[in-house]
Structures are given as C-alpha cells and as structure tokens.
Design a protein that fits this description.
heterodimer; A: 238 residues; mainly alpha; 11 helices; 73% helix; B: Arc Repressor Mutant, subunit A; 3 strands; disordered N terminus
Chain lengths: 238, 119
C-alpha cells in the first residue's frame, strides 16, 4: 500500500513536471506507460528505478510545444475574461442603482493588480506550482486587492477620477465573457486541440469521463456564471 | 528478444565506475537491440547478464528516447498477454550503421588502451 501511494505521488509529480515542460499529452501517456511497464517487470519503486520525477522528466528531453504557446492559447483569453468580469462587476452595481460608474485612481490600481499578476504568470509559474506559499500569497493579494477596491470606490462624483455610463461597460463585459466562453467551448470539442493524457494502447486515460467533461464546460463558462450571480446579488440588494 | 532466453554468458553484476558506463552505455544498448526488437526490462537484463551491472530505468529510457529522436531506434507498443503492453525498441538502418561505427571505434580505443597498459 505504501509503495502504491509513493508511486502514485511520483507519477503525479512526473505528469506535473512534463506538463510544465509543455510535453504533449500523448507523449506523457507513453512515458507513464513505459515506466509502469518497467516497474511491473522489476518490482522496484518508481523513485528507486527512475530517480526523482523532476530529474527524470528533465533527462527525457521530450519534444515540447513552443515555450509560450499556452500563453497565447490559454493565458491571454483567460486574462481578457478576467478583465471583462472585473469591469462587469464594477458596472453592475452602478447600473442596478441607476448611478454613474465612478472610478478613482486607487480603485483602478487595485483592480489592475490581479490582471497584472496573472499577465506575468509565465515568469513565476514554476514557483507557484512548486511552492504552496507562493500560490497562497498570490491568491491572497488578488483577493485583498479586490476587497480593498470596494473600499476605494468613490462615494460621490467629486471624489471620482472617471464618471462613466455603466451600461456600455456592462454590455461590453458580458459580450466579451460570452464570446470567450463560446470560443473555449468550441475548442474543447475540437479534437485537434485535444491534449489529454492518452495511453499508447488503450486510448484516453484521464479527463474523459462525463464528470470531467462537465467540469471543463463549467470552467469554460465560469466568468459568465459568476457574473450572473453578481447580477442577481446586485438586483437583490439594490 | 526475451528475458527467458538467457544467453550463455552470465558474468554476474559488476560495480563499474559510473563514468565508464556513461561513456559506453549508448552503443551497448544499441548492441542489445542488434538481435531484434526488445523492451526495457529485457535490455536491462541482457546488459546485466553480460556483466555490466544493473542499469536503472532512469538511465536507460532517456538514452533510448534520445536515440528515437535521433532516428537510431523506432518504438512500437505491443499488447501484453493478460498484462500491460510493452514498448519495443528496434534498431533502424541508421542505428545499425551507428552501432557498427561505434563498435569499431571502441575496439580501436580498447586496443590502444590495453597496449598502453601492457607495454
């Protein structure tokens, strides 16, 4: 049991290390299957046969996608979605109260903080994944900046740096979120973008169940779902 | 190649300096494939049986992966009988030529070294 647990941890870490190196899912599946084949033959533990998962992943030198392809394919759309969601949230309260959308410089900086932190994610992604305190710290900064931005909202027009009609921002934010979610939904059904980990003999091994597919769609529509919840709350408490 | 078909030479495990194995493992692995397609454990067993000690999977697989990328070996998954599948490695023509070249170079180097050690 102990061996199975430590081997499972080793394989989980190997998958993470190979994912960090942008190795394609089919190559990861092949690597896992060949490692399991040898362990099955020798009865060794994974760490004993292959060394640390990190060193083994590095030693394999498997072909990888261009280093920043995921930035173009995943990060920029996610960032745009976050920006649209933040704008929608700012506009929705003003719109339900039939007020102007008032913005102060401090509020703008606080709202920009999570956007900037995510934009620079490629530079410190390894640290976020390998060190839990970095991940917790970044999450805390994002949450606190969102919280403090609420306190930095101007109470009257004299304090505001910008006074805008909230409706165009509300509609614009909603449109961007829906378009991005539709795009992600179409891409997730498109087989060419399929990067699931697949076994070389029996096909897909992970993320193929109905639950996993539903989870992908919930993730694709996360911002519109949260935005609808915010709209409901704003209408309820206006 | 099959592990059960053990050859006549059984010299037992040796604890060679790791530098020596690092330098020679490449063409030794190619040699282990010269008789026909083989899989990880069979290659390790073949080398162990011939006295090179136990080669770890963490050493062998990265080497074979690099050889696959370089076109020296090809791979094929074959379903196992009642068990998991096996990944078979096979020499390509380029791999066979490389084995011939490296073997000749090594024999020349070994002769020179031996001559020097036994004046």
């Amino acid at each position: 049991m102990m061996q199975q647990t430590s081997d499972k941890q080793w394989f989980d870490q190997l998958v993470m290390e190979l994912r960090l190196r942008q190795v394609h899912g089919s190559a990861i599946g092949d690597t896992i299957a060949s490692a399991k084949e040898l362990l099955n033959d020798t009865g060794q533990q994974a760490e004993e046969a292959f060394g640390s998962a990190r060193d083994y992943a590095a030693a394999l030198e498997l072909p990888s996608a261009p280093k920043h392809e995921w930035v173009r394919k995943a990060l920029w759309p996610a960032l745009l979605g976050l920006l649209a969601f933040l704008l929608f949230n700012q506009a929705v309260v003003s719109w339900t109260r039939q007020e102007l959308l008032l913005v102060s410089p401090a509020q703008l900086i606080l709202l920009a903080t999570p956007v900037v932190l995510i934009a620079f994610l490629p530079f410190y992604l390894d640290a976020v994944i390998r060190r839990i305190w970095v991940c917790v710290g970044i999450t805390a900064i994002c949450m606190l900046s969102g919280l403090f931005s609420a306190f930095a909202t101007p109470t009257n027009r004299a304090e505001a740096w910008l006074a805008l009609d909230p409706l165009p921002w509300l509609i614009g934010g909603a449109l961007v979120m829906v378009v991005l979610s539709l795009r992600n939904t179409v891409r997730s059904f498109h087989s060419e973008d399929d990067d699931d980990i697949t076994s070389p003999l029996s096909g897909p091994t992970e993320s193929t169940g109905a639950g996993a597919r539903a989870m992908v769609q919930v993730t694709n529509w996360l911002f519109p779902i949260l935005a609808l919840a915010m709209l409901g709350l704003a209408l309820a408490f206006r | 190649m099959d592990v059960s078909n053990s050859g006549p030479q059984t010299t037992g495990s040796e604890d060679w300096p790791s530098d020596w194995l690092r330098a020679t493992l490449g063409f030794l692995a190619l040699r282990a494939l010269s008789a026909g397609p083989s899989y990880g454990y069979a290659i390790i067993s073949e080398l162990e049986r011939h006295g090179f000690g136990t080669i770890k999977g963490g050493t062998l697989y990265p080497l074979l992966t690099r050889y696959e990328t370089a076109g020296l070996v090809t791979t094929e998954w074959r379903a196992g009988a009642g068990g998991p599948g096996r990944k078979y490695f096979a020499l390509t023509d380029q791999g066979r030529a490389e084995l011939t070249r490296l073997s000749a170079d090594w024999r020349r180097f070994a002769t020179i070294s031996t001559d020097y050690l036994n004046p």
